[in-house]
Amino acid sequence: MSNIHSTAIVSKKAELGKDVSIGPHSIIEENVIIGDGCKIESSVVIASGARLGKNVSVSHSAVIATEPQDLKFGGEETLAEIGDNTVVREFVTINRGTIAHGKTTLGKNCLVMAYAHVAHDCIIGDGVIMANSVNLAGHVEIGDFAILGGVLPVHQFVKIGAHSMIGGGFRVQQDICPYSLVGGYPLKVVGINSVGLKRRGFTQDTVRTLEQVFKILFFSNLNTTQAAEKIQIEFDSTAEIKEILGFINRSNRGIVK
């Protein structure tokens, strides 16, 4: 049985799962689906097109699935999806998609800290952490278990690779290679995200291999194309190597070096 505060406004056309909690003065519009066990705190707006998985937590004054801040948006029906067990903290804003992709997606087990913004058509993987005041422009893609430091603006169409970590307060204008640790002015790769990889259970052999790959890709005199060719020749085609080479091939903005 759901627990809905008497001051909350919940559309009869919204679908609520079991054991959903909705706090004071929150608004749940029509065409919304909220999964079992979700907790919606006070003064939250869950707009039309929102799809929340199970056990999602949404803190005070967050706004989810409002219209994109995109002049090309023509009022089309689109979605904003949030995966199971994700935590959305205070004053976070998440816009729904446009006709370009149809939806904005945030994966399972993510943490989006206070005042962060996720713009239209972003695709965010599982286990991603976005610290306070991260601002994603439209069409940003973030791989699983990436960590974004606070007060971080990310340019539209940027891709951020899985298991990478970006320091807070920098500006991200190009793609970030998977497994990398990134920071500085101008933004640059300073090594692999070794602490994060160990925490995620990567073996010492895998970490050492990635360190060797990064020496070729980021700390040699080779350009990106030459480095990718050398890596393909000299290393076994493991899942991690495939991830890096595939990411380079998909990059449209170029990668941070």
Task: Please supply descriptive tags for the structure shown above.
11-stranded mixed β-sheet, 8-stranded parallel β-sheet, 4 helices, 257 residues, UDP N-Acetylglucosamine Acyltransferase, domain 1, Udp N-acetylglucosamine O-acyltransferase, Domain 2, 17% helix
Instruction: Give the CATH topology of the largest domain.
Output: UDP N-Acetylglucosamine Acyltransferase, domain 1
Unreliable segments of 5+ consecutive residues? none
- The count of domains is 2
Number of helices: 4
The secondary-structure class comes to alpha/beta
Shape: elongated
Give the distance, in angstroms, between the N- and C-terminal Cα atoms: 53 Å
CATH architecture grouping of the largest domain: 3 Solenoid
Report the oligomer: single chain
Strand % is 25-35%
CATH superfamily of the largest domain: Hexapeptide repeat proteins
- In percent, how helical is the residue content? 10-25%
Overall average pLDDT: 97
Largest sheet, strands/sense/barrel: 11 strands, mixed
The tally of beta strands, per DSSP, is 27
Rounded to an integer, what's the Rg over CA atoms? 20 Å
Strand order of the largest sheet: 1-4-7-10-13-16-19-22-25-26-27
Query: Which CATH class of the largest domain is shown?
Result: Mainly Beta
